[in-house]
Amino acid sequence: MQAWKEYQSANKDRFLNELLELLRIPSVSAKSEHKQDMTACAEAVKKRLLEAGADKVDIYPTDGHPIVYGEKIIDPAKPTVLVYGHYDVQPAEPLELWKSGPFDPVIIDGKIFARGSCDDKGQVYMHVKALETMVKTNSLTNNIKFCIEGEEEVGSPNLGKFVKENKNLLKADCVLISDSAMISLDTPSIDIGVRGLSYIEVEVTGPNRDLHSGVYGGAVANPITILAKMIASMHDENNHITIPGFYDDVVVANDEERKLMAQAPFDEKEYKDDLGIKELWGEKGFTTNERTGIRPTLELNGIWGGYTGEGAKTVLPGKAFAKISARLVPNQNSDKITELLINHIKKIAPPYVTVKASLHHGGEPYMTPIDSKAYKAAAKAMETTFGKAPIPVRGGGSIPICALFEKELGIKIVFMGFGLDSDNLHSPNEKFNVENFYKGIETIPYFHKYFSEMS
Amino acid sequence: MQAWKEYQSANKDRFLNELLELLRIPSVSAKSEHKQDMTACAEAVKKRLLEAGADKVDIYPTDGHPIVYGEKIIDPAKPTVLVYGHYDVQPAEPLELWKSGPFDPVIIDGKIFARGSCDDKGQVYMHVKALETMVKTNSLTNNIKFCIEGEEEVGSPNLGKFVKENKNLLKADCVLISDSAMISLDTPSIDIGVRGLSYIEVEVTGPNRDLHSGVYGGAVANPITILAKMIASMHDENNHITIPGFYDDVVVANDEERKLMAQAPFDEKEYKDDLGIKELWGEKGFTTNERTGIRPTLELNGIWGGYTGEGAKTVLPGKAFAKISARLVPNQNSDKITELLINHIKKIAPPYVTVKASLHHGGEPYMTPIDSKAYKAAAKAMETTFGKAPIPVRGGGSIPICALFEKELGIKIVFMGFGLDSDNLHSPNEKFNVENFYKGIETIPYFHKYFSEMS
Question: The pTM is what?
Answer without folding.
Answer: 0.85
